[in-house]
UniProtKB/TrEMBL annotation:
EC number: 2.7.7.80
One CC-aspect GO term: cytosol
A family per Pfam: ThiF
Record-stated family: Belongs to the HesA/MoeB/ThiF family.
Subunit-level organization: Homodimer. Forms a stable heterotetrameric complex of 2 MoeB and 2 MoaD during adenylation of MoaD.
InterPro entries named in the record: Rhodanese-like_dom (IPR001763), Rhodanese-like_dom_sf (IPR036873), ThiF/MoeB/HesA (IPR045886), ThiF_NAD_FAD-bd (IPR000594), Ubiquitin-activating_enz (IPR035985)
Species annotation: Caldithrix abyssi
Keyword Transferase attached: yes
Residues annotated as domain Rhodanese: 271-355
Descriptive protein name: Molybdopterin-synthase adenylyltransferase
Amino acid sequence: MERYARQIILPEIGSAGQEKLAAARVAVVGAGGLGCPVLQYLAAAGVGELTIIDGDRVQKSNLQRQILFGASSLGQNKARAAAARLKDLNGEIQYRAVDCFLLPGMAIETLRGHDLVIDATDNFATRYLINDVCVGLGLPFIIGALDRFQGQMALCNHNGGPSYRCLFPDRPTAETAPSCGEQGILGSVAGLVGLAQANEALKYLLGLNCSADGRLWFFDALTLQARTISSKADEKQLALARENFKRLPDVDYSLECDGSLEWTAGMFLQREKETVLVDVRESATTPPPFPCRHIPGSRLRAEMLPAESDVLLVCAHGLSSLRLAVLLREQGLERVYSLKGGWTKLSGEAASGGYVAANK
């Protein structure tokens, strides 16, 4: 117990509290800017089993805020790289690395059996998936989100309190809620919000008062102002979550959130063999780094693409392809996506991951 001596002497924790932490199982979805500090502090505190879920790979632009990783981690799967680093921090607990993204077909079995789920993701489709699975399984979960110099956090689905859908019933679009990659994020803000999630998780596991229970906490790092907004459970939103849970895996969360129309480069590299890749640039000034079909966006129609396969549209930087994906979805093509960051992002990801472009 020497490792945990400084927290055991707290009267609110003691040896009994440390035993609670050692018996706890926590799933952390996302090992990025939020997930890294969450994982570090839960591991250091002695949480008995941590499941780390992430299908992305470490790239250089991550290192500014994803402080579990270093130069030696570049190109590695984030879940596996995080588990390896955490074992050095605390080898007395168990780590389970799930090296793929949380998807409707495996979310229930992946999250089942945990005491708590931490949502450290950066896209709304996965957040609503986590919400529905946790409501269906009766699991509390802690959300975190980032917006430039601001962040938010809440404990959801606990003691009859609100779920994520109750807090955010209106699903945002990619245009109204751009990602950190599009609008930027100060690395320390991700750390602050991740620490808040970890702190709330430890309080919950120890049976202490959870101040974020039913309240959405906002923090502004520029002004150092914090505020909370209280909320109540919305039975309509809870019923929707339960219905979706029963229908899994046959729920398409991409139809709820335009942001989920986007695939990251890591997602494509995982599914390359099963994906139809389409270059929608009007003119290919540089050759694409992967074999693909070239159909200029101005001439692209839904009937030109297979309905039974995942179709990934790619332009230079991911903006034109996203607009086209939205239009094609409206025309009834349900399995069309846009590559986030475009060819620029995919080329860099492939290089950092050790991939060799097939046409070079």
